[in-house]
Specification:
Length: about 170
């Protein structure tokens, strides 16, 4: 019985480390509960952009079917961005998260490429982009950049960063 508890605690610790990615102590998820815009709306209104920054990996945001769907997070201030993690939904459809560009910018019309991930993820999978140092911005955009017609339906987007003390 004691060994089962030890194994369970070890698995919880490992899961927490994998979710946090072992990030530096000065970084936090600066996207949590921030405003999110989607490039289009899915036919069911229950998949709003706010679901991708609510800390729950059991729900999702969902765009309509389009060529290059995107979501954009307004961080509400300027942050140094270290890493952006995009988590695929865990119920199905891992193929809907593929070939993404992550852009960061101080304005929506002046976004710079932070990084790109090629290929598909799996159900419940994760795509991570480490931004070059220093990457500072207010907006973070995730966009599928390959294919003729796609849905973008991530479960969560985590933006690891820290508030800029000057501006």
């Amino acid at each position: 019985m004691v060994s089962c508890v030890v194994v369970a605690l070890a698995l919880v610790c490992l899961w927490q480390f994998q979710i946090s990615g072992g990030h530096r102590h000065d970084l936090e998820n600066v996207a949590y509960s921030k405003k999110v815009n989607l490039s289009s709306e899915y036919k069911d209104p229950g998949y709003s952009g706010s679901k991708v920054v609510n800390g729950l990996y059991s729900d999702l945001a969902h765009t309509g079917h389009e060529r290059f769907p995107w979501l954009r997070i307004d961080l509400g201030g300027h942050y140094v961005i270290h890493e952006v993690e995009v988590f695929a939904r865990s119920d199905c459809c891992g193929h809907q998260l593929h070939d993404i560009d992550v852009k960061v910018g101080k304005r929506t019309h002046k976004m710079r490429l932070c990084g790109h991930v090629s290929g598909y993820t799996r159900v419940g999978g994760r795509m991570a982009v480490f931004c070059p140092t220093p990457t500072v911005g207010r907006y973070v955009q995730v966009q599928i950049v390959k294919g003729d017609s796609n849905y973008l339906s991530p479960a969560e987007v985590v933006v690891w960063g820290r508030k800029v003390k000057y501006h």
